[in-house]
Write a sequence for this structure.
């Protein structure tokens, strides 16, 4: 018989051997009766369920009131039945195998045993059983403690802890996302061109939306289509270019989120129809459509603490469209500051900045650089005769011919009025002379029509100076070319003149090289 300090584990059977030891003195009948009353009281008032079983047959011989109330069975329904015949124990421990194990080990303990009451309520109990002798007969006492509330408290605590761990992890992810957004914003604010911004967007979007594919498409000026300029992820699903009406987000003017592609309308700008969710965010500033941000493989957020991909994508879209709008405005202001609004050529301000830079580069490399100053002959008379609109048209046509017959590295500027300047890096005096003659010949061939009438032809006078032959500073080089132009005017106009240092000493320019223009080669 196993000893225990729990008084509820002692038998209450009147036949049980007394457990008191009075130093060899046999207790009186009254003491035995008092002891039995005491233990009967403990048995009936115990706050744990107690079952007494026959160790040989497994039949229930006694059950206390607490167990009856806990399981919903009456005293009569429990007595005389095998433990495994009672509903709560059918699928629990009271199988014949478990009972045999108890007979062998004489002690079994279950920390968390799920039981079901008569009314199909689930109870979590702590089950302890042991075997001892009563008048030489083995009995089994089972103590069943209801730990349902404790398990619920433990489960609640575990759930709270899991929620806290999940919350901490999500807050860390959110912090990482916000840091990436901050980094992207800082880098974009430092970009000076749209190309730089597109590189930053592709890099940071790949980090923000790791494992997902997406792209940024922007509208092209004066065109009704969009072109992909940045992408990230393993796939490249966009069909570039595509029309504005191909995207539902651009049509509707707000984000278009698709969770199930087969349950809603799908955009037409994908190379292959999407099989998973996606999100399109329009980039619009004050009614001006700049582009669209598209993200594939979107998922709904799983918790309140989680930043949804829609929220992140909207934040990224806001950042991108503001940066692109600022860069567009900056580019517009730069064009306005450096370009002549009438002809589209660079202006005098740009010439002052670029000529010094190009001249320094040429001197450092030991290369040549030439400057030509051109002037429309008798332009004031043309303007007074045909009007300012016709004069503006003549200036635009002359500028167009210059732009079409120069290299990409050359610079064409309008100095003001009817005067132009050309900067030709890495060009010798002979090559520059040939190029300027060609431009003058093409300008003379222009047929200017205005108001339904064919106006007269235009001619150009030009002066050319080169570095390092004639000057090594921008001011001196322009002055030399201007002196050569003045000499061409004095010599009768419609001429191209190369500067010679003696020009400043001989105003009549008798020693200047005057070149009659030759017609351009026929194609």
């Amino acid at each position: 018989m196993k000893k225990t300090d729990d008084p509820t584990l002692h038998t209450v059977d009147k036949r049980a051997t007394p457990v008191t030891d009075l130093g060899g003195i046999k207790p009186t009948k009254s003491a035995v009766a008092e002891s039995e009353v005491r233990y009967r009281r403990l048995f009936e008032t115990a706050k744990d369920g107690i079952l007494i079983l026959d160790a040989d047959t497994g039949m229930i011989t006694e059950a206390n009131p607490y167990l009856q109330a806990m399981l919903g069975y009456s005293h009569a329904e429990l007595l005389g039945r095998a433990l495994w015949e009672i509903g709560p124990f059918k699928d629990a421990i009271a199988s014949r195998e478990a009972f045999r194990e108890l007979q062998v080990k004489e002690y079994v303990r279950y920390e968390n045993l799920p039981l079901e009451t008569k009314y199909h309520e689930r109870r979590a109990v702590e089950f302890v059983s042991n075997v001892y002798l009563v008048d030489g007969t083995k009995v089994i006492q089972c103590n069943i403690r209801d730990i349902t509330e404790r398990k619920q408290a433990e489960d609640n605590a575990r759930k709270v802890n899991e929620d806290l761990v999940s919350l901490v992890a999500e807050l860390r992810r959110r912090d990482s996302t916000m840091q990436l957004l901050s980094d992207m914003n800082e880098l974009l604010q430092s970009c000076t061109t749209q190309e730089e911004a597109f590189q930053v967007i592709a890099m940071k979007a790949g980090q923000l939306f790791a494992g997902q594919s997406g792209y940024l498409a922007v509208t092209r000026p004066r065109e009704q289509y969009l072109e992909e300029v940045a992408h990230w992820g393993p796939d490249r699903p966009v069909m570039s270019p595509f029309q504005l009406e191909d995207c539902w987000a651009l049509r509707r003017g707000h984000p278009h989120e698709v969770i199930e592609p087969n349950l809603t309308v799908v955009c037409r700008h994908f190379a292959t129809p999407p099989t998973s969710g996606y999100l399109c965010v329009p980039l619009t500033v004050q009614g001006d459509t700049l582009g669209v941000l598209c993200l594939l493989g979107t998922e709904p957020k799983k918790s309140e603490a989680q930043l949804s991909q829609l929220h992140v994508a909207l934040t990224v879209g806001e950042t991108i469209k503001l940066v692109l709008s600022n860069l567009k405005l900056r580019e517009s202001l730069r064009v306005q500051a450096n370009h002549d609004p009438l002809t589209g050529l660079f202006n005098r301000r740009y010439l002052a900045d670029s000529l010094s830079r190009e001249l320094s580069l040429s001197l450092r490399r030991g290369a040549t650089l030439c400057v030509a100053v051109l002037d429309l002959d008798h332009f004031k008379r043309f303007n007074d005769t045909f009007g300012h609109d016709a004069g503006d048209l003549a200036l635009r046509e002359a500028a167009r011919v210059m732009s079409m017959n120069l290299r990409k590295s050359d610079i064409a500027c309008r100095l003001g009025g009817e005067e132009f300047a050309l900067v030709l890096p890495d060009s010798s005096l002979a090559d520059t002379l040939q190029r300027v003659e060609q431009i003058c010949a093409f300008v003379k061939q222009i047929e200017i029509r205005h108001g339904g009438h064919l106006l007269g032809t235009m001619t150009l006078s030009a002066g050319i100076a080169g570095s390092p032959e004639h000057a090594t500073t921008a001011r001196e080089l322009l002055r030399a070319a201007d002196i050569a132009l003045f000499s061409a005017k004095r010599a009768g106009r419609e001429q191209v003149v190369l500067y010679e240092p003696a020009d400043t000493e001989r105003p009549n320019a008798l020693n200047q090289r005057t070149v009659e223009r030759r017609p351009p080669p026929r194609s």
Summary: Residues 148-190 form the longest helix (43 residues). The longest strand covers residues 122-134. DSSP finds 14 helices and 19 strands in the chain. The chain has a mean pLDDT of 82.
